[in-house]
Amino acid sequence: MKRKLILWVPFGLCAALFIAFFIGLKNPADHVIASKMVGQPLPEFDAAPGIPGQPGAATRDFKDGKPRLLNIFASWCVPCVQEIPMLIRLKDAGAEIDGLAVHDTTPDLQAFLARNGNPYTRIGLDSAGKAQIAFGSAGVPETFVVDGQGKIIYQHIGVVTEEDMPKLMAMLGARP
Amino acid sequence: MIAEAGLAALWIAAAMALLQLLGGALGLMKGREAAAAIVAPAAIVQAGFALLSFFLLIAVFVRSDMSVLLVAANSHSMKPMIYKVAGTWGNHEGSMLLWVTILSLSGATIALFEKKLRADTRLATLAAQAAIALGFYAFLLFASNPFARITGVLDGAGLNPLLQDPGLAFHPPTLYAGYVGMSAAFSFAVGALVTRNVSPDFARAMRPWILGAWIFLTIGITAGSYWAYYTLGWGGWWFWDPVENASLMPWLAATALLHSVTVLATRDGLRAWTIMLSVLAFSMSMVGTFLVRSGILTSVHSFAVDPERGVFILALLAIYIGGALALFAMRVSTVVEGNRFDMVSREAALVINNLLLSVILVVVLAGTLYPLILESLTGGKISVGAPFFNAMAGPIAVIMMVLLAAGPLLRWRSDRPRMVLDRMAVAILAAAIMLLTLAVFARGIGLLPLLGLVAAALVGVASLAPLWKRKLTRTPLFTLGMVMAHLGCAVSMAGMACDAAFTAENMVSMKANETSQVGPYSVTLLGVRETPGPNYQALEAVLSVRKGTGEPWQMVPQLHQFTDPPMTTNQAAIKTFWNGQLYLVVGENTDGTNFVMRMWWKPFVTLIWLGGILIALGGALSLLGRLQRDIWSARWPWGADKEATA
């Protein structure tokens, strides 16, 4: 009997997978989750400059009174390419945008930014992914909005899309 | 008219598939055996009409008939002929038609040539094949009609610039032949379960089909990797993109299957496992198709899609894969366990090889689907990317290589560890020399590349050992094939490790007449000029390259700016030497006089694809050897029902 039950395991796994696929197909949109990070102070991190000529990013940079967007990204991340134009639009509208590149290298970053554009004021390089863990971030891309006193007011998992723009513009005090 | 004829042919093919399914199902019942007679002819006629439909779609593209929606959306009257033809499958509907056409062709091939299998198992196999085809015909006819008409279009929208490459003509058809060829193994497994016939004979009948599909898959992946390497302009050869992974997963399952089916054929072991892998290999192919066609994951391969189609394909997948796995669960316990073997034996080595391949498969599957699972739980789209895959799959691949060195030198059933080490002495010596050489001359290349090169040396020599003291002319072709495929693995791994360890990279912002260095080459920017292409504006950098004080030569990387759709593509300038490739890319213009140049010197990178070709050639030799032996023993493969023994 036990052997028989084991034989159904592949079927069960496959069924679970298909349910996940189905949910993935049915709910493509809702990118907003109630985050535990919202309301918390920004975790302590201090990341070296990612590319020469631009400063790195650290927790202290987020306490200058101005709301800032912190984008966790990577040059190897395919979806990240998609949101760069959105970030550039935010920047052009006057928002302050900083980046934290995880598991990355300077040459890869340079090529990525040369190819896709560079919306970032500061770019920190988190080559070991330590800061990413401190942020409780599940993957890239992820986006945080910090209020100017070092408190996180918004977390967005995944690609920033057109629908998220009005909200982000408002939070960052930008004018489209 | 051509489009209507194509649609009609598609409907007839679908009807034939239905006939084939019903005939097969009835034929297996007691007292209704007569119905079985219709099955093989139906399979052949079905393939004929599917092929006709596909050729008519090509004809519509060639004639640039803009009253057909698909042509208007994906082609352009001014496009070169090769892209008009290849454009047929450079879109969702056309590629699905290609998919079912290959499916029906593999069904017809089974109907025509498969005479070794027990009659009832063959019948069940053909019925399973028809059931799969029927679902995809329904998908084409009801959700993705390639022949739909449109009015009022003067000329087409053109083909995605990235796809306007000779690679498009070859990469999808070979890959699809591999994907869909796996359906034969799937149908065989279903047939064997239905008729309770899991035996060495069955394994011998199934093996050439697996080999054939696996060869195509290998070629398709190798070609796709090289295509991505030279068109994307990132200098990388594998990006762990979801769709690349979707082609790698069936290959991993098929490679495991190829080895386990040999155990079943030769030693009558691993019965349930072989059936499981047969189901898995094609399931992975279908999941791959689903991932590409549904747009559920973000990938460079996605065509425009709508979720309805995704749900349709998902339902088909649930029926086929779920059905096969349920059948497996119900029937496989009635399959008697096969022969047993020792811990040190060729069977054991093959089992471990299978397990390691499965682990890599699970790693790739988990990494590919993790973003999707996370999305269904939290709603965010993310990517885990290359660092995860490299860190997880790399070490397992190296372990597998060590095993691959020993495996073919082990005896079936039982062997002594001491003897195996003796047989591997030369290979171990080669690995030790490689290790010493690297330790002295190439310190700090990283652990994984180091292990990769040592393992490659080990396998490179050990893979030749089965030929030791053998007359080459009297060695069976399938042994030569195995040797060549294993050598290919070593060659490919050496290429990957060299690329990871020794690549020299330089990214600079250059003005005219400035010189920069990459590896042993110095690159001078002579100038930048704009030239108009047929449907893009090209920015080309004229570079003068020389090694040391040798003769300089010119290389001209281009940047293509397409306006409709707005898109920039890179044409890297690549020069191949015996010991590597020089890869130059021109990037954006930073301020009018400065241009970003990216240059790589990649020692021995070509070995990666050379290895892939060797692996495929080895498979082809093996297949030839098997078929030759079949013909030898049966005289005439499609003649009388004579039992063949390998």
UniProtKB/TrEMBL annotation, chain A:
Domain Thioredoxin: 36-174
Record-linked InterPro entries: Redoxin, Thioredoxin-like_sf, Thioredoxin_CS, Thioredoxin_domain, Thioredoxin_ResA/DsbE_sf
Keywords: Cytochrome c-type biogenesis, Disulfide bond, Redox-active center
Signal peptide feature range: none
Keyword field contains Acyltransferase: no
Keyword Ion transport attributed: no
Compartments, as annotated in UniProt: Cell envelope
Annotated PANTHER family: THIOL:DISULFIDE INTERCHANGE PROTEIN DSBE
Protein name (record): Redoxin family protein
Organism in which the protein naturally occurs: Novosphingobium aquae
UniProtKB/TrEMBL annotation, chain B:
InterPro entries named in the record: CcmF_C (IPR032523), Cyt_c_assembly (IPR002541), Cyt_c_biogenesis (IPR003567), Cyt_c_biogenesis_CcmF (IPR003568)
Lineage: superkingdom: Bacteria
Regions that span the bilayer: 6-28, 35-62, 96-113, 125-144, 176-196, 208-228, 248-265, 272-291, 311-330, 351-373, 393-412, 424-442, 448-468, 480-502, 604-625
Coiled-coil region: none
Record keywords, A-Z: Cell inner membrane, Cell membrane, Cytochrome c-type biogenesis, Lyase, Membrane, Transmembrane, Transmembrane helix
Membrane topology, from the record: Multi-pass membrane protein
Start and end residues of each Cytochrome c-type biogenesis protein CcmF C-terminal domain: 314-626
Record's subcellular location: Cell inner membrane
Any one GO MF annotation of this record: lyase activity
Stretches assigned to the Cytochrome c assembly protein domain: 89-294
Function, in words: Required for the biogenesis of c-type cytochromes. Possible subunit of a heme lyase.
Assigned protein family: Belongs to the CcmF/CycK/Ccl1/NrfE/CcsA family.
Protein name as annotated: Heme lyase CcmF/NrfE family subunit
Species this protein is from: Novosphingobium aquae
High-level lineage: Bacteria, Pseudomonadati, Pseudomonadota, Alphaproteobacteria, Sphingomonadales
